[in-house]
Amino acid sequence: MQNYNKVREFLKRIKIKPNSINIYIQALTHKSYNFTNPDAPNYEMLEFLGDSAINYAISRVIYDNYKSEGHSSQLRSTLTSTTALAEACQNLGLIELVLLGKGAYDIRDNNKLKADIFESFCAAILLDQGFKKLDEFLAEYLYKKVNFAKEKQYKDPKSIFQEKIQAFSSSNKINYLAFKLADGTFRVDLFWEHKKYGIGYGKSIKEAEFAAAANALSIFASDND
Fold first, then answer.
1. Distance between CA 149 and CA 142 in Å, rounded?
2. pLDDT, tens digit, for every residue of 24-77?
């Protein structure tokens, strides 16, 4: 298979000695590759497992650091969002290892695909190396920069954007307009004073709203520099 050596080198770089490299190849095989290689297992079922594994791992880390509910659900939603997982995938260079069918190469820029690939790769680690190794991988490549002591005061992007608007304007009506996309995910457009300030994508409307608010915060900051 064309990326066998690249995957082996990648695993070496992140200090994983595979018991079976085939599970990692599967995790990095898009279904479009099956058009010309129908017998090649693709990532979809691994993505299903990886989604649950990541949620459990992060829930456990938050539980160990918080010991109270507070904003823990919001923090977990942020850490497991399409945006966060896609960024981790991009930073690792995983997306460049994905096997795609002819004509599908432009989807490498799709955040939903990047998030799915990160999830499927995590499932491969779980099945090949066990949960301890997956936990170490996530700590290094997903939430290494999270200061959990600081995050005990965590506020979600929607709340932060609302507070910034209220600080200097009496017009604090913020509208979130949601659209369901063909792949089952959602896009949300954030409007304030008839101007679109943010766009976000997610597996749920709530996740997409958080992403739109985070996008709006960055635009709002640049407009008010």
1. 17
2. 999 998 887 767 777 878 889 999 999 999 999 999 988 887 655 556 777 787
What's the pTM value of the predicted model, to 2 decimals? 0.72
Cross-strand pairs, 202: 186
223 vs 225: CA distance, rounded Å: 6
Q: What local confidence, expressed as pLDDT, does residue 67 receive?
A: 57
Domains of the chain: 1-152 (1.10.1520.10), 157-223 (3.30.160.20)
Mean pLDDT confidence for 100-125? 85
Question: Does the structure show a pLDDT above 80 at 123?
Answer: yes
183 is catalytic: no
Q: Is 156 labelled as part of a ligand binding site?
A: no
Active site residue 51: yes
| Alpha-carbon gap, residue 34 to 26, rounded angstroms | 11
Q: Is 116 annotated as a binding residue?
A: yes
Catalytic residue, candidates 39, 44, 51, 183: 51
Task: State yes or no: 163 annotated in a binding site.
Answer: no
